Amino acid sequence: MLQLPVPTSHLMIHSLRLGPGKDLKADLEKFAKEYAVEAGFVLTCVGSLTHAEIRLANQEQGQTYRGFFEIVSLVGTLSINGSHIHISVSDSSGYTTGGHLLEGCKVYTTAELVLGVLPEVVYKREPDSQSGHNELTIYPKKP
User: Fold this and answer.
1) Which of 27, 82, 96, 105 has the greatest number of beta carbons closer than 10 A?
2) Separation of alpha carbons 93 and 48, rounded Å
3) What are the backbone angles phi and psi of residue 32, rounded to the nearest 5°?
4) Residue 34 or 8, more confident
5) pLDDT confidence of residue 4
6) CA-closest candidate to residue 85, choices 141, 43, 33
7) All domains of the chain in start order, with CATH
């Protein structure tokens, strides 16, 4: 379903690094709150984890993985009105898994992030009759 008109915006870029022991999801949410991010997204992320908390597709509960993992992908939308972020991690044998990012993903050595923010747009999560879930809705920011 295409929502028209699609609002446009200038792009602001933020770079940050999370150190050992930081919680990837909690710190992304903290960033969104501190900078009042209403429409943001993850451009890129590289780093490593010792704990991965991931909710796999079509599952109610998250899975806990412990060990040493490389972050091979982090994508999604970020907003004080609700975020939706997916992560993929690989272990030392190259096994890769991914799903919804949950709190409890603990940084091992570093997580280097580049985040985009659209200051003239607002992301919200609202009920969708087709999916039965709260889904992304996009609005122009009111002056």
Assistant:
1) 105
2) 15
3) -60, -40
4) 34
5) 60
6) 43
7) 12-140 (3.30.1330.80)
What number is the average pLDDT over the span 124-136? 94
Three-class SS of the chain: CCCCCCCCCCCEEEEEEECCCCEHHHHHHHHHHHCCCCCEEEEEEEEEEEEEEEECCCCCCCEEEEEEEEEEEEEEEECCCCCEEEEEEECCCCCEEEEEECCCCEEEEEEEEEEEECCCEEEEEEECCCCCCEEEEEEECCC
Q: Are 16 and 113 in contact (CB under 8 A)?
A: yes
Question: Rounded distance, CA 3 to CA 112, Å?
Answer: 33
Q: Residue 49 carries which side chain, given as an amino acid letter?
A: L
Prediction pTM value: 0.93
Backbone phi, then psi, for 37, in 5-degree steps?
A: -75, 115
